[in-house]
Amino acid sequence: MRKKLLFGLALAIGSFAFAQDLPTNPEPGKCYVRCVTPDIYENREVQVMVSPAYKKLKTIPAKYTTVNETVVSKVAGERLTVVPAEYGTETFEVVTKEASQRLVKVPSQTSRDTETVVVKEASYRLKIVPAVYETRTFDVVTRPAYQKVEIVPAVYETRDVVITVKEASQRMEVVPAEWGTETVTYKKREYGSSIQLTPASFTSDFETIEVKPAAAQWQMSEIPPADCNSSNPDDCRYWCYKAIPAQNVTVPVKRLAADASSTRTPDCDPNNNGGKPCGEGTFTRTIMVKPPSTRIIPIPEVTKTIKKTVMVTPPTTRIIDVPAEVKTMKRRVMVTPPTTERIEIPAVTETVKKRIVTSESTRVEDIPAVSKTYKKTVMTSAPKANSIPVAQKETTLKTTKLVEDSKVVETEVPAVYKTVTKEVLTKKGGLTTWKEVDCKLLVYNDLNINWNLGSATLTAAAKREIDTKLLPVLQTGVSVEIASHTDSRGSAASNEALSQRRAQAVTNYLISKGINSSKIVSNGYGERRLLNRCKDGVSCTEREHLANRRTQFRVLDQKN
Length: 560
What we know:
Helix content: 10-25%
CATH architecture of the domain at 438-557: 2-Layer Sandwich
Distance between the termini: 41 Å
Number of helices: 5
């Protein structure tokens, strides 16, 4: 608390002294400024070695040539090929139904004949006492009895019969030769030496470059002194000569710890190869261990089961008696002859047709056997084997011969430098005497910048506005203040921070255009300097709030 009181007292004394040093004989309506002359800096380029010079080693590998070497990969031998057996086809007959007999019925013969029968016997009559007649019946055989022969057919059954369709034969099978392998050693390649490179090693370090020296500048306070008698608070301000610390840039650099080196070692050391010579290769050669042979394999006969019909019971006959046919006829018979004169009456005859049937008989007919022709395969020539020689095979192996051993080539890598721009103070600034200035340059000038909601990013239109209105003023050498404001909506803290970011965004854009940062003061006032009634809790239109959202600039001093 005591430090704050002493600081306030010092500012009050400085303010009083500053107020006493006003321009003499000022004219009404004129504006005066006591310029703060900025420190003048000059940009100088400094080269910093970020990577030292070192050696870079490159190995040229050994050169080899490939030589073709012909070796026997398979020794000569023989192989057997089978000449298969030759087969022919024969036909043979098989009785599928044996010969038998059947009885054929000889039908009865029917003939017709006529027979005269007395239908009225001869008689006589008396002239006085006629004879007495009566009608009587009698039987006449119209067809005598005969015998009928009925055939009982033979009984057959079907039996399975096995027949040979292909006779037994033989086939010859080749037992292939048995082959083995043997390992043959040969000189596959020659070895040179390998070079192991150890690249240069570096250590990381940092080098600090002062790009902007320490300085100091006059700054006007925002808060007026408590004993200011003027109704305009801008008439009284504290001027403080504040120190600006130096700005340093830390550049990462590399330091050479050890330069590159190389170590030569043989590509193959027999001591590290299990005691075996280096570069030996092996290949596998096929050799015949046992020659080929043949063996005879019997082929069984091929049979087929067929169906054959066999007569079990021959046909027979049985006799059937056919009774005679009898016809009952009537005839008139004299019962009492006449007792008087007898008159002879001749007999009356009638011709009767009758059918004579002879008995049926049978005759024997032979049924020939039924046979079927089949084909069967018969071996006409047994199989045999032919021996075919197998020539030896040769293969070409590639062997590697050393032509030139490996070597190392050195290359000098130069140091790498980085150019750093630093500011060097060439002329010290300070307060000047009062000068008359154009009053228009002391008031705030609006920049028509429409910020996006909650954003502090300059749009393309905003950059064109700065290029047109503000950049030409700064290029004359004056110092300016960038002031940004918000409306009352939102918290005061967030509005203060947003306005400061927007003012700084304009400042950063000007610096990117080549304006020295010492010529620009950026201030964000948030909602502290409203132009209308639109404070917290007051209902306003969007147009009224828009009037408070503004970004401005004013000239702090003139170019000397």
